Amino acid sequence: MGETKYLENQSAEATFILLGFSEYPKLQVPLFLLFLTIYTVSVVGNLGMILVIKINPKLHTPMYYFLRHLSFIDFCNSTIVTPKLLENLVVEDKSITFPECIIQFIFICIFVGAELYLLAVMAYDRFVAVCNPLNYTTAMSQKLCAMLVGASYSYATFCSVTLTSFLMRLSFRGRNIINNFVCEYSAIASVSYSDLHVPQKVTFAFSIINEVGTLIIILTSYAYIFITIMKMPSTGGRKKAFSTCASHLTAITIFHGTIFLLYCVPNSKNSWLIVKVGCVFYIVVIPMLNPLIYSLRNKVVKETVRKLFHIKLNNDKM
């Protein structure tokens, strides 16, 4: 009992050094400017998307309700990590305390998990819209949409709490060097003095369950969508149906491809460079890409943005 308490005290007092990209000293300034640009575009894009969806009644549909939450998740994801990444690129002290690291991990896990399931929910939404358009409004009621979003956040929180509880049982001492820019699970666990057999198995199991579970929903939905589209008599109808799904398919491919490479392929963790690049992609880059993917292909969103700029310019002239 006394030894366990001593190890807990040591872990609480431990600090982590986030190496980030310090092995490339000449790239620190270029990387800072690159990530600052990406973060700025991400914040403006996601907050802008939330605003556009809120002010335009035409966008008060289930699809855009989910998209608004996706933008919120992407904004939170990038904001949790990128400011610390930018700071570590310009300061010598790259340390982060154990509680700060755990808090960062908790929120990353929640929002990444929520995005994973929200993308699956959006695939189901597209399935109903394409395969059962006459009953779409009834089938995708406001209550059901709210329940689906709530379930995504709730299950992601459950996963986060479970994985965090395993991390909290690990023991850490003194200064621990993490070969990453973020408090990612495998990076934290790699500097622990505890036996990692059970935590690694649990992490792998959660990754496979979440990845396979969401992919089954997505692939099943799009299989029915594809069959329905191919049965459409007009070419114009097919193009329109494919167009409504193209943005979502692009977002799914990028996000799931990165997650699968990082957490569902065991050998991927042998290279910390792959882990770091993968983390950059799904935590920093994807939150920037999603609003661009959905806005550039959507006429209503682009028209709303143009009207906003037009009103702003007219107000400035007055």
Walk me through what this model shows:
The protein is mainly alpha-helical. The chain has one domain: Rhodopsin 7-helix transmembrane proteins (Rhopdopsin 7-helix transmembrane proteins, Up-down Bundle), CATH 1.20.1070. Mean pLDDT is 82; it is low at 1-9. Helices cover 78% and strands 3% of the residues. It has 11 helices and 3 strands. Helix 2 runs parallel beside helix 10 and helix 3 packs antiparallel against helix 4 (98-131). The chain has helices at residues 2-13, 28-55, 62-90, 98-131, 136-139, 142-169, 185-189, 197-230, 235-264, 272-296, 299-317; strands at residues 15-18, 95-97, 175-178. The chain has a 3-stranded mixed beta sheet.
Give a concise summary.
Helix content is 78%, strand content 3%. With 318 residues, the chain is mainly alpha-helical.
Helix content: over 70%
Can you identify the CATH superfamily?
Rhodopsin 7-helix transmembrane proteins
Q: What number is the mean pLDDT?
A: 82
What CATH first level would be assigned?
A: Mainly Alpha
List the secondary-structure elements in sequence, H or E: HEHHEHHHEHHHHH
CATH architecture: Up-down Bundle
Give me the Rg, rounded.
22 Å
Number of helices, where a helix is a run of at least 4 consecutive DSSP H or I residues: 11
- Model regions low in confidence, pLDDT < 50 over at least 5 residues: 1-9
Distance between the termini: 72 Å
**Outline, from the CA principal axes?**
globular
Number of domains: 1
Main sheet properties: 3 strands, mixed
Number of strands: 3
Biggest sheet: strand arrangement = 2-1-3
Percent strand: under 5%
CATH topology: Rhopdopsin 7-helix transmembrane proteins
Question: What class, by secondary structure content?
Answer: mainly alpha
